Request: fold
Amino acid sequence: MSAADVRPVVDPARLGKRIAELAAIGGNGRAVTRLGLSVEEQAARDLVGGWLGALGASVRRDAAGNLIARFGGDGPAVLAGSHLDSVLDGGRFDGALGVLCAVEAAESLRAAGARFRRPVEIVAWADEEGARFGLGLYGSGAAFGRLPAGAAERRDALGVSIAEALRALGERGEPEAARLPAGAAAAYLELHIEQGPRLERAGVALGVVSDIVGIFHARVTVEGRADHAGTTAMDARRDALAGAAAMLLAVEALARSREGVVATVGELAVRPGAKNVVPGAATFSLDVRAGDAAALEATIREIRAAVRRVGDERGLRSTVDVLSSVPVTPLDQALRDLFMRAAAAEGVAAPVLVSGAGHDAMNAQLAGVPAAMLFVRSTGGSHTPREHCDTADAALGAAVLARALGELAC
Amino acid sequence: MSAADVRPVVDPARLGKRIAELAAIGGNGRAVTRLGLSVEEQAARDLVGGWLGALGASVRRDAAGNLIARFGGDGPAVLAGSHLDSVLDGGRFDGALGVLCAVEAAESLRAAGARFRRPVEIVAWADEEGARFGLGLYGSGAAFGRLPAGAAERRDALGVSIAEALRALGERGEPEAARLPAGAAAAYLELHIEQGPRLERAGVALGVVSDIVGIFHARVTVEGRADHAGTTAMDARRDALAGAAAMLLAVEALARSREGVVATVGELAVRPGAKNVVPGAATFSLDVRAGDAAALEATIREIRAAVRRVGDERGLRSTVDVLSSVPVTPLDQALRDLFMRAAAAEGVAAPVLVSGAGHDAMNAQLAGVPAAMLFVRSTGGSHTPREHCDTADAALGAAVLARALGELAC
Reply:
């Protein structure tokens, strides 16, 4: 049977049931908390692995904690999946939907009598969010040889390292050992909720990702002088928090001034942090993203200048420590075209979108494994219990993913 | 022997030695940490109480943890003192100097052969700073019947209540029982470092306080919507932290626009507080002070309007919860005149100052006990290890305090 003969039929009811079943793990009826390498994430792997095993896949967990379920024999595999971890008080769709739709795609292909010419691996990368150890895209980073040095020693808020968390799962604490041999992966397909309003506004269920934004992460430290709030005249102050506030508004104004750029200050801490003490120091996080490399660079340059200028005006010392700087990642053109064709075959004229969030697909693409992403319309943002994706849209996504997998592997 | 015959001679070396000895309690060679109702504060009371006992005072600790050392018999007493607690990583002079100078004043009066016509009580009020339980002026509040309701149940960061801390000291956990009977206190004199730059700039060692500023404390809560930092366009955000930053700069500008007004945002917290999440909520503290009641009221009104305006502009909900609002407290004119005369007798033309900080003297004055304060020149602000007062200036302050005590009690 050739790919053209395969007519996979996805089952929305089955998919919806699995979404609910998975959401119960780490869920409290409202939010879902399944941190990376936690017992909840492991329970999610067990549940999904069980479904895939029942479909005839050979299911394993690699040295980094990734779930890999293989259909077929030797040779380079076509990978499809996403992640099963969530942020603290997150939702049921971010990551999970990509894994469940990959399961649904595999099941519908099997039900349609497809045979895999090339091996297919359904994957669930561990700890994509980085909510626990501060290291996003961890599992795919391990698999694609893109972990930063010393990753295994990153620790969570309780002092547990990634290595220790892996050992608690029964692994050896060596995530680097999960690296896929060269040539083991032929392609990587990832379905994900959009997490943004564009598909909803356009009234379309699916979109195809052209590029993943470049992401610049830094920590800005502002140092002034702590003083008594009652006895220090306004003109004698070097208030680090007031300076940070001025910097923060400059960051917002600069991002607003450029199309396709977003900048966020999500963390801010004040020292000494007492109501009757003028702040002596403040630190804040900086997250700048753009789909256009030049716009990203220009915005970062202007933010640095604004931080310096505010510091000079207010007699404050400031430093910008770059934590990470990921370039804009264009995804594979041939696989994008494949998703477009598959969507069209399901009756969807999928728009081309830039992804504002980082995704595991970045690690594949940057490691030389052709990757593509399919976005499914969602509402309520993401990283929150409000995130939502209609099962009908999800099923449509699973059908497109099944078609694409069929083209590549059957 | 009448007051006019008494010639108290303070001993700067003895005073300097006691400053150093007291600073060792809770001190680390640099900063001093003696939180209210802690073992360190108790050790400080024991040290000072020992000195006063050796001078013949009858030394006790009251139900709130205040140290009271009485010279003389029955009848309304003249009180002099300050506090022995400090903030976290504070200095050796704020509070402590007022107690030590009162000890020095009593000792110099005794050495000069003074007899107390009226009883004199040297006092060290417990937990003036409020750094531990968030309740400033606690000990004097208990003594002068001005504790807020439920004060005993205020808890520190470890969950220990004031009542429990008192019981750990051997008291009954009922700070209200420390309330002085009506008529027990005839007057209250307090020496304190200035904590500000005015005496230093004027080149004068001492100043007399006319008024203690009114202090308005509030907590501002700003609620927006948490969103994904990568997928939420700038114009679709309701960023609570950006709104708080705009409010904070408005607070600063409003305080700068009025002479004699200071406003401080010393605490700020962000939720959820992740670098890749647009802040959904922010709360910050507000501390507004002025020596002029009308200026204070106008500034508070304008800050409230600015908070509302920023919230409306940005689609954020905001609330201002008033935590406390202490009016401007004019101190006793006759006692102020007494301090002026005593300073003049020591050769100092003391300027009249408004105190930008709250002090225990407020509780006495507001409870109907005439109170006055003498400020001693200091540098480096306060609530920091940098705070400094020359021993020569402190000794001059002790001499003026001794003269004033002699006038009132001998």
Summary: The two ends of chain A are 8 Å apart (CA to CA). Chain A touches chain B through 63 residues (CB under 8 Å).
